[in-house]
Design a protein that fits this description.
Layout: H1 7-19, H2 23-29, E1 46-49, E2 55-60, E3 66-73, H3 86-94, E4 97-98, E5 101-102, H4 103-111, E6 117-121, E7 126-133, H5 137-149, H6 155-173, H7 176-188, H8 201-206, H9 209-219, E8 225-231, H10 235-246, E9 268-272, E10 278-286, H11 294-305, H12 310-318, E11 326-330, E12 337-345, H13 349-365, H14 370-387, H15 391-403, H16 408-419, H17 423-433, E13 440-445, H18 447-454
Parallel strand pairs: 2-8, 9-13
Antiparallel strand pairs: 1-2, 3-7, 3-8, 4-5, 6-7, 10-12, 10-13, 11-12
Helix pairs in contact: 3-6, 3-9, 5-10, 11-17, 12-13, 13-17, 13-18, 14-16
């Protein structure tokens, strides 16, 4: 008779077989403990300045005959003033044509070098990037110079860009994530460009080509630009190409400095979405020290910054309130902030907020375990080194650290500083930065059922504003 093995009997048989394996054999099969992290040191760099003030950093890196080129211009939404997204419109128009070539011709030229050309606009940084074959580095440098110095700004392209941005705005304003993010930024960065997240449709409809040209003329220049070349390249040829392409560019003004107040008054803002099955919750505050402080970076990661964090285990794994909570440390030029955000089931909105506060207080009241601290240190050092394993990662990291005024020294010291962290360091960092009575809270959800829950959260009692 044929014997049929069920899942239960198979499992029992497997357990019996494992139990019969000698302990010495199992010990040999166990993975070895991780070794101590190696000190990280940047490759030898060459940094210099052109007579017009443009900074240049050349980094020989890797063995592949390719280079990553990144031109970082210190401008963006910080220079919008009240014209929200004027920087975005300018950047989008620059990509439509430059140096007499339209967008398709720019793309074809970049593809012929084995890469692509892109331009991104952020709060304080507009970045033009290419990753090309080493032999094409001089041509790529010239192409980026056309993009930054000689955009065409054609009237027909303006309307195409306006239509794209209007569509993006409509989509964003329908998303609870975007709505909550905008409201939170308005609370912690009042009357500052960081708090002006979205324009009105009327603003977008009213921007003119003259405004775009004026923005470019006022904010793009050599004095605001740091040019990075990372990879395998002929140093003399690259230097000559940079001088030829950018040596005649006007210096322009220094980067804008517009500090935001550190301790904006905390608030609770409620935004109604009747009938929504979920609430979007954002909790956080400005922090006095930047996220570059590795003690708080580690504490934030353990609290909510990765999949095995405490808040994630609590409100996702244990209680099932949410699918993807996450702590975010935004280290901005004019002021850092920390947030924990989560899309939670509507009926669990109050309990989820209660648990987030509970985890913050728990970390203030008692130091984390040795295993938790070691896990965070391994995670941070590992992701740091992985992030620098590519040419683009290296160029982007250098640009971001230069933007924040940290420089290459921060990168060289990072692994050592993280490795030296103790449980007390993490506890003290949370005490220093995350005072629960200074937290602002934004909730976007069905307030008819959610507001009664919020009234029961001790940290929110008496602070609930009227819903928008």
């Amino acid at each position: 008779m044929k014997t049929i093995m069920t899942f239960a009997t198979a499992t029992a048989a497997l357990a019996l077989a494992i139990s019969a394996v000698p302990a010495a054999v199992l010990a040999r099969e166990a993975p070895p403990a991780p070794s101590a992290p190696r000190p990280f040191t940047l490759p030898q760099m060459m940094t210099y300045a052109l007579p017009n003030g443009m900074q240049v950093t050349l980094v020989p890196y890797g063995n592949v005959p390719k280079v990553n080129i990144l031109a970082a211009v210190w401008t963006g939404n910080i220079d919008d003033g009240s014209n929200v997204w004027l920087a975005d419109m300018t950047g989008a128009l620059m990509q439509k044509g430059a140096g007499g070539r339209d967008a398709s011709q720019l793309a074809e030229a970049a593809a012929g070098m084995g890469g692509s050309l892109s331009l991104s606009t952020g709060l304080n940084l507009t970045a033009a990037t290419m990753d090309v074959l080493s032999e094409d580095a001089p041509a790529a440098i010239a192409l980026i110079a056309d993009l930054l110095e000689r955009p065409d700004f054609k009237p027909d392209d303006l309307e195409k860009v306006r239509a794209d941005l209007t569509r993006n705005l409509t989509v964003a304003k329908s998303s609870p994530e975007s709505i909550s993010s905008e409201a939170f930024q308005q609370v912690i960065y009042p009357d500052h460009p960081y708090g002006r997240v979205f324009p009105t449709p009327e603003q977008l409809a009213g921007y003119t080509l003259d405004q775009v040209k004026a923005f470019h003329a006022a904010n793009f220049g050599a004095a605001r630009t740091h040019f990075y070349v990372v990879g395998q390249f002929d140093a003399a040829g690259v230097r000559s190409a940079i001088e030829k392409a950018f040596g005649g560019w006007k210096a322009g003004p220094a980067p804008t400095s517009l500090p935001a107040p550190v301790n904006a008054e905390p608030a609770v803002r409620l935004i109604d979405r009747p009938g929504a099955p979920q609430s979007m919750v954002v909790i956080g505050k400005r922090i006095d020290k930047p996220g570059a402080e590795v003690d708080f970076k580690a504490a934030s990661t353990l609290l909510g910054g990765y999949f095995s964090s405490r808040i994630t285990r609590n409100i996702r794994e244990d209680k099932g309130y949410t699918y993807s909570p996450h702590a975010r440390l935004s280290d901005r030029v004019e002021g850092a902030s920390w947030t924990e955000d989560a899309a939670v089931t509507a009926e669990s909105t109050g309990p989820a907020i209660t648990e987030i506060y509970k985890e913050i207080r728990r970390m203030q009241d008692e130091p984390p375990t040795g295993a938790e601290v070691q896990g965070i240190k391994n995670y941070m050092n590992g992701t740091f080194v992985i992030g620098l394993a590519s040419r683009g990662g290296m160029a982007g990291s250098l640009a971001n650290l230069d933007l924040l005024g940290l420089g290459a020294g921060y990168m060289n010291a990072y692994v050592g500083k993280v490795s030296a962290l103790t449980a007390t360091d993490l506890q003290d960092a949370v005490k220093r930065e995350l005072a629960t009575d200074r937290m602002s809270v934004v909730v976007v959800g069905p307030l008819e059922s959610v507001r009664p829950q919020l009234e029961k959260v001790p940290e929110l009692a008496g602070r609930l504003e009227q819903p928008e």
